[in-house]
Structure formats: C-alpha cells, structure tokens
Design goal:
By secondary structure, the chain is largely without helices or strands. It is built from one helix and two strands; from the N terminus they run ββα. The N and C termini lie far apart (30 Å). Bound molecules: zinc ion.
C-alpha cells in the first residue's frame, strides 16, 4: 500500500471513470487529470465519500 489514501477509490467528477485503474494514477498528487475525459479531479480528503452511491447522489 502506498499513497496518501490507500483505502480510497477515486472516481472522475465528470465521467465517473475509476481513476485508480488509470495508467500512472498516483494519489500523492493533488490533482489527477482523467485519462478518459481530461477532467482535472482534486485528490483530497474533502472529496472522499462514504460510498459510490453517496458520490453519485451528491451531484
Ligand atoms: Zn473523466
């Protein structure tokens, strides 16, 4: 396990791709540009949701 958030799954705010699986993803960066849609996602604890359902329901 490495990075700042070893237990957290990250999803793109725009296209909801699973960012953890994207090539080169590193949660020690403060932003991650989605390789699918190009959206810059903020990687911080403010953006962690308890579940994927809550994440989807928050928009
Ligand atoms: Zn995306």
């Amino acid at each position: 396990m490495s990075g700042r958030f070893p237990e957290v799954d990250w999803f793109c705010d725009r296209c909801h791709e699973h960012l953890n699986n994207q090539s080169g993803f590193d949660d020690s960066k403060y932003t991650w540009k989605c390789t699918d849609c190009g959206h810059k996602n903020s990687i911080s604890k403010d953006n962690i949701y308890e579940s994927h359902e809550k994440f989807l329901g928050s928009e």
